[in-house]
Fold this protein.
Amino acid sequence: MRRALGAIADAWGAIQRYCAALLIIAMTALYGFNVLIRGLLPQYASTFAWIEEAARYMMVWVVFLAAGIALEVGRHIVIDLLWSRLGARAERWLFAVIDVVGLAFCMLMVVLSIQLTIFVAGSGQISPTLGVPAYVLYVAPVVGFASLAFGFLLRLFFVRDARRTPSAAAWLKGAEP
């Protein structure tokens, strides 16, 4: 079971990492292009007004994709003053409580995000300049919180826990600081 969860985590981590990277590259390229147009050909700037909205959508997706990655590799904010003073048994209990609360919170947020996405999709709302359905933006929290929940689950089952041991995810090989 651990091996299967680890393989799923590796595949999902790779998908998140590459999607986030592609979105950041596309966002940077679009902003650079927008600056050039506004500086060199200002008469055409209004034609590219959609770039601002596209970049905003991309940024929201990057943030929610990166949340799961950050949890898996131990890059979320942590206050380790307390646990470094605890014994091994108390530390296990503290980590378990943190992971259970984190899992419960993320699952609640997945449910609420799905409800919000369904509501927005039902409204038929469309983004002003891109013309895409507005619910596309609201799917990002669903994906992000589901990814965080999966990360907490991995920690609960001792598959991946960067607090105890450095992450050994296959997709991170060669990318460690």
